[in-house]
Amino acid sequence: MNTYSERQKKVSSLLAGEDISLLVLCDREGMRNPSIRYLTGHPSDSVLFIFADGRSLLLPWDINLARIKATATQIKPYNDYGRTLGQALSKVLAEEKLPAGSRVEVPDALPYPEFMNIANGPYQFVCRENGLASAIDDMRQIKDDAELVTLRKAFSITDDILDKIEAELRAGQCTETDIALLIDREARLAGAEGTGFETLAAAMGRSYNIHAFPAYTGAIMPADGLSIIDFGVKYDGYTSDVTTTITRNLSPEQEHMVALIEGAVDVAEKLLKPGTLTTDLSGAVNGYLESGGFVMPHNLGHGIGLYIHEKPFLRAKVDPVRLQKGMVFTIEPGIYDPKLGGIRLENDYMITDIGYEKLTNSRIIRL
Question: Most buried pick, 19, 125, 268, 309, via CB within 10 A?
Fold first, then answer.
């Protein structure tokens, strides 16, 4: 049994435990769900039916791609099922002849009017928060061996690109756009699918933004002060996420900001081990930064994998989660000031049996 089949069997067991006969997952524009790729290997645009008896049916928009990439008990063209979720579900239910009263769980992100069009016939339709889709998200928190192999390739490509960025900046002037295009080009040349999200490159004039808007411009880099580059590389669906800050000719106040962020990373790393609560971890870093006169306006970090922001989320006051072996996430302390600029240092980490492994080599680049 391959990895995808094993994951599908686990989901089928969850269905049986909750007396759900059929789970429907959908990945389409406006309702993306990377769990279908996690469960089948198919990259995007499809509907997946998982039955409590262990069977699965994948309806991809691109049948040729699915036949090469995907694993499911059956793979059939979405075109044969009307190319709408409602028509596909109706036809599958008719083909399967599920007993009247069977419970069918549909996507929790389904728009209400669409749910009302679907929820008819002799079945109990379930659409709920924290349902089986959320349970699959929980499964994805702990990366298995196959995922770690893929992630490590993404991290390796990322580190190589970080070195190229530093070399480019040390060689002379370029623009934010030059850096962004360098990242995309080098990622694709290394075999990646591209970037995991839109690259953010902000020289001193815009680095005070948490997420630069626009993402990058023609501004010159390196520039005096604090400049931020935030990017990720997507390899076989899995993304990295790092941020480096470039410094040049800093004022004493800016030097203080740099020292604070480097100290915040030390605070976080001392707490990275199985059993630590994410709220305690985040709270310790927030407290350290506040003692230095700054408030971090975003979370300390987040899980990464098939989606750039996934469980666990490292928040200071809500959603406490105990760190477990196999969790992969970012640590990204950052502070920002409209006059002094912004600084963020982000790396990717994994929890091990006794502590952590730092998976990327982002750093403060001092020019």
Answer: 268
Three-state SS letters, 52-68: CCCCEEEEECCHHHHHH
On whether the CB atoms of residues 332 and 301 are closer than 8 A, the answer is: yes
What whole-number distance in Å separates Cα of residue 327 and Cα of residue 280? 17
Note whether 196 and 338 are same-domain residues.
Answer: yes
- What is the domain range of residue 112? 3-140
Same domain, 174 and 115: no
> Burial of 231 by CB count in 10 Å (0-12 exposed, 13-18 middle, 19+ buried)?
buried
Overall pTM surpassing 0.85 (yes/no): yes
**Are the C-beta atoms of residues 363 and 343 closer than 8 Å to each other?**
no
Instruction: For residue range 162-214, list pLDDT tens digits in order.
Output: 999 999 999 999 999 999 999 999 999 999 999 999 999 999 999 999 999 99
105 and 184 share one domain = no
How many whole angstroms separate alpha carbon 329 and alpha carbon 56? 30
Q: Is the pLDDT of residue 118 over 90?
A: no
Phi-psi region of 83 (alpha: psi -120 to 50; beta: other; left: phi over 0): left
Q: How many helical (H) and strand (E) elements, i.e. helices and strands, does the chain have?
A: 10, 22
Tokens standing for residue 240: 């990295």
User: Phi, psi (5° rounding) for residue 31?
Assistant: -150, 60
Q: Measuring CA to CA, which residue among 349, 345, 341 is closest to residue 365?
A: 345
